[in-house]
Amino acid sequence: MIFFLLSLLNIISDTEDSLVFLYSPDYSIFYERDSLRIELDDGDVWTKTGEPLLPYTLKKIFVSSGGATLQYKVLKKEIIQGKPIMNKNTIFEDNIFDYKPVFLEPAELEIFGNSVKTGEIKIFPFSFDGDNIEIRKEILFKIYFKGKWFKPNYKLFADYMNKPKGSVYFKRGKMENDNGIWIKLKIVDNGIYKIDRKFLEDNGINPDIIAPENIEIRTGYKSVFRFKNSFYDSLDTLPAKIPAIYHLKNENGRFDEDEYILFYGTSLEGYERNFFYKINDYAPIPGSDTLAHYYYNPYTDTNVYWIKTNGERLEMEETNITEGVEVSDFLKVLHFEKDKENPSRSGLTWIWGSIIVPSDFNYWSYNFNIQDAIDSFCIVKFGIYCGISTTWHYARVILNNDAVYDTFYTPRFFYNERMLLVDTFFTLSKGSNNIRFEILNSKATIYIDYFEISYWKRISNANNEIIQFTDSLNRIFSLNRKYVLGIDDFMKPVQIKKIGNYYGYNGKKIFVSDTFYYPIEAKISEIFSLWNKGADWLCITSNLLKDEATKLANYRRKNLNGFENPITMVVTTDEIYDNFSYGVKDPGAIKRFLLHSSTSWSPSPSFVLLFGKGTYDYRNLKSITPSNNIVPIHTIGSMIDVSSILLNNPTVDVWFVDFDGNTRPDIPIGRLTVTNKLEANEIVEKIIGFESSNGYWRNRVIILADDEFAGGSANELFHTADCEEIYRMLPKWMEGRKVYMVMFPMEGGIKPSATNKFIEEFNEGAIFGYYFGHGNIYQLAHEKVLLIEDIPRFKNWRKTPMFYFATCNAGFFERPEERSIADYINIYPDGGTIVSIAATRATYPSSNKALAKNIVNNFFYKRTFGEVWTRAMNIYGDTTYTFFGDPATSLFKDTFSIPLTIPDTISGGNEYFLGFVDSFPEYYITINEPETSITYTTSTGSTVNFTLEGSRLFNAFFKNTDSISFILPFDTKEGNGNFRLQIYSENGESHIYKNPLLMKGLPSESIPPLIKLFSGNRELNDFDYVDKNSELRIVINDESGIDIRRKENIVLFINNYSNPVYLGDRFKYYTGTFKSWEVTFNLNTESDTLFVEIYCVDNCGNIGKKKIHLIQRSEEEIWGIYNYPNPASSKTYFTFYTLRDADVIISVYSVSGKKIWEKKERCHSGFNRIEWELVDDYGRNLGNGVYYYSIKIGKKKIIKKMSIIK
C-alpha cells in the first residue's frame, strides 16, 4: 500500500528584518512487510547506518551579518503506528540495526560565513518514539535577522528562500607599495641561522644589490591551519617581522665580507603546533591523548623564513636578570618517533611499528644512545594505538632488562585514540640503551607511535638545544655558550646577556648554542603575486605539470561555455604556498587562496580545476620518485583502525571551495588525478576531443544496477528500483541502455555476461551514466561486474559520459601507488569517462538517490558538468563525493527548436522523408521498437518492475542537407516506438523526440543485398591474396536498407560454421544514405587458405550472400617471382606478386657480387611486371653469362639466378 501527499512551501513575508514561511511536507509512505519506508520528495535522510530512516528537508536562506534566530510552531500533526525501515550503507559489511527512538525537534538553524552569511534550516517532518511516527503536516517558521546585509562576490549555485539584500562584499587585498625583493629561506631544525655574503652568492643571489642594514627577517607559519570564519579576515597578511642580530660595520648598501645577520629559526615539530580542531561529535576520553595532535607536521618538515630587502630592520632585544633561583639541571625530553607506516592507508596518522598477536613476535624494541644523563633515573612515555576495542590489554615495558607492567582498557571505539603509558625507571645507562614493549595478550593489535625518555641533564652541558622548564620563574644558571636566547615566544626571541658567570631569565624556554646553521636554500620569490588578479577558469597544479595545464588553459581561453572572452589562469601550488601559507606546504593555503580570489578578484573564479593527483603521503614518506602528490588533498582523518578505513578519514575536495562552512561547494571544483606529463597531455587531448565530438552517443544514458545478492541477502531490489526511478526522470529523447544485473546468470559467484554487456554498451558511448549498488575502491558489486583491471577494455574513445558511481569508496583515490576505479576510468586515455562522480568513503542508498535526482534535475539546464554537480551538491549530497574531471567541460551547446512534422504512424517497408526549412551540418537519427515491460521476481518472492528499450530499427547520419529519409523493417513490432533525432548547427543543438505508432507493412522490393569484400580500397575476388591477420571491409548496398534489429542479421563465417561472427550491432551507414553500409573485421586466423561466407538480411526480408576463397600471406611477403624469358637474349621481365602498394628495389649482380644494375619502382597490390633491357647502369650491353638478381620489399629480400645468351 502506498500513500502520497503533496508539499507546500508558502513564503508569507520576506524583509530585511524577518522571513516568515509555512511548510507542509511532500512525502510518500511505502508499506514493506513489517516496516514502512518514508520518502520525502525534497529531502534526504537524517539518521546514521543502523538507525531508523527518517528523512528531512534542507532549506537555505541568506542571513544578515548579525546572525538570525529561529522560531517555529507545529500547526498540524498526525500519529501513525509503525516502524521505519533501517538506513543501510552500501559497503561490503553487515550492519547492526536497532529500533531505538529518534526524537527530533521540528527544525534547527545553522548559520555559516563571516561577513557574508548564509543559513541552512533542517526541517524534520518526522519523529519516532520507538513505536509510533509523528508526522508534522504543517509547520510555521519565523526567522528574525540582525545587522547589515552583504552579498557574495561569486556566483551562487544554491536556491535560497529569501532574496539577497545589501551590497556585494568585495574585499581587495592589501599590497605593500615598494620595490623590495623577497627571498625565501628554507630550514628544518631549531637553531640560530646566519645570512652573509657567501650564503647569498652560493644561492645565486647578488649580495651587492642588497643593503643588509635594510633587511627584515620575517615568518608567519605558527601552526597548521585550523579554519574558523574569523580566520578568513587575515587572508592577505604578510609574514610577521621577527627580531634578528645584525653584525654590520659599513652600512654601505651591500653585504661586505665580514658582515652578517643572525636569527632564531624553528622547526615545525611539536604537539603545540600540529593539532586540528575536533569534529563536532568528538568526545575525547579522559586519560588519553587526542588523535588531533601530532608531533611532526603532517604536511612537510620544512619551515620557511623570509628576507625582505628594503624594509626596516628589527634588532633583537637584550634581557638580563641578576637575581633568582640558581639552577644547574633541567629535565631533558628526548622524543623518538619515525613515521614509517600508515595502517589505514588514509588520513594523517602514521606509525613507527606494530605488534600483532598471535604472531612470531609479541614485542617491539629499539636501541638508542644517551651520553649526558646525570643519573639512571628516567621517565618513559609510550604513545600507542590499540587495534581492538572493548578489551583489557596487558603490556610490559622493559628498559635495559628492568620491566614495568601496564594494564589498560580500551572501551568501544577507543582504538581511535592514542594511548599514553607513562612509567618510571632507574636503569638508564650512559651510552647504549634498549627499550622493549611487549604485549602479553593472546590476541592484540598494537601500533607504536612514539616513545619519549625524560632524564636530568646538566645545564652546563647543553648545546644547540632547548632548555625547558615547567613554569616562569626568575632563574640564574651558569653556562659557557656563545648564544643564549629566550624563546617563550619564538616569534619574539630575546638575547640573554651574561652577567659575570651567570645568565638570568624569567621564562620557560631557552635556546643555547655555540654554532649556527645556514638555511638549506634561498630563492627569490613573490609573496603577493596572487593578491590582485582575476580569472574565470582557474587551474591549480605543480611545476611538473604546468605546461600541460597551460595547454588546457589556452584551449579554455577560447572554449569556456557561457563566456565570450574568458580569462584563464594556471597557478602552481608553490605560488599558493608563498602567497597564502608564508611559503610552507600546507594544503590549507589552497582554501585561503580560493576564498581570497572569490572575494577579492575581478572576475572571481567560476571554475576551479585541481590538475594532479593528491595522496595522504604529503611528505613522500614512501619515497616515490617523483612524488605523485601533485595537488594535495584535504583530510583531517585520524582513524588508524584498518577495519574502519572505508568509512573514515574521508578526502574532501569540496572543502577547498566551501567558503561559509556548510560543507557544500560554493563554486564548481574538479580534480584530474594525473601524475606525469604523459597522463596530463592525454587527459587534455581527451577533454578537447570530447567537446568537439557529436554523434548518436550524445543521447544515450548507460545504467548499471546491482542485483539482489549482497552479504548473505538475496532480496536487495532497491538498486534496480532506484535506477529505474532515476531513468523515468530523464527526457524521452535520451535512450536508456540498461544493464540490470538481476537479468544475468550467476557463474561461479560472478556474472561475466553482465560485465561484457556493460562494457559493450559503454563502448558505444553515452553522455550520461550511473551505477547503483555495492562497491569499493577496485570493483563494483559483489559479483565483480566491473573490476579496475577491466578498464583497458573500454574503447569508447571520445564518446565519454559523465558517470555517477552511487556506491561506496569508488572514488578512494588518495593512495599513493594505487588508483580507484572512478579516477582511473576518468584519466584512461582510450575512453572511459569524461567526468566521474564518486565518493571517497562509504555512502548511503537514500543520499545516493537524492544526489542522483538532483544531478538529473539540473543535467539539462546547465552549460557545464561542473555546474550540474555543484548545483546538485548544494541541494543534497554526501560531502565525500568527488568530481573527477574539468568542471568547465561543456555539457550541451545552446539548444534551438525547429519546425518538423514527424508521421504519427510509421509502417515498415515504406520509405519516409523529413524536410527542413534550413540545411544543418549534422543529423543523427535513431528509431527503436516499443519498450518491453519486465517484472523480476526474487527467490523470496519480492518483485521489481522496469522497462527495456526496444531493438534498434534504424540509425543513420546525414550531413549538410535539408532533408533526410528512413525505412523500417517490413515486419516491425507494432506499438509505440521511440523516434529520436539530434541536429547540430555551428553553435547549437536540437533534440527531437516522438513516439509514433509503428505498424507492420509489406516488402517494397525483392532484390537481395549486394555484398562486396575489400582489403583497403582493393575489391577482393576468388583466390586473391590478403595480408595475414589484416583488417577487411564488408560493403553492402540495398535499396531498402539492412535489418539491424538483431546482430545475427549480418553474420560472417571463416573456414567453418562453428564460430560465427555477428556484425549486426557494428553496422555503419554511409553518410547521407541508408542504402549503403559497411563494417570492418580482422582476420584472426593463422590458416593460409580462407573460405569466407557473409550473409545479411535487408528490411524487406531478402537475404544476401557472399562466398569467396582467399589466400593469406604475411604483410611484407612477395611471391611468384620469375623473370621471363630466361635465358634472355634482348630483354627480360621480372614478375612478382605483393600484398600491398610498396616501394620495390630490383638489383642485378655479376657472379663476383658486383652490382651492375638497379631500379626502384612503386608497385601495387597484386601482380607486377618490370622490364629490363639487359644493360648496366651506364647503358652498356651485358655479355653472355650467369647473373643474380634480388627483389626487395620492406625487410623482405629474395635472390634468384638468371642467364643471358645472345
TrEMBL record:
Keyword terms of this UniProt record: Signal
Start and end residues of each Gingipain domain: 538-891
Gene3D superfamilies: 2.60.40.4070, 3.40.50.1460, Gingipain r, domain 1
An example Gene Ontology biological process: proteolysis
Gene Ontology terms for molecular function: cysteine-type peptidase activity
InterPro entries, A to Z: Caspase-like_dom_sf (IPR029030), Gingipain (IPR001769), Gingipain_N_sf (IPR029031), Secre_tail (IPR026444)
Source organism of the structure: candidate division WOR-3 bacterium
Name by which UniProt lists this protein: T9SS type A sorting domain-containing protein
Domain Secretion system C-terminal sorting per the UniProt entry, residue ranges: 1124-1204
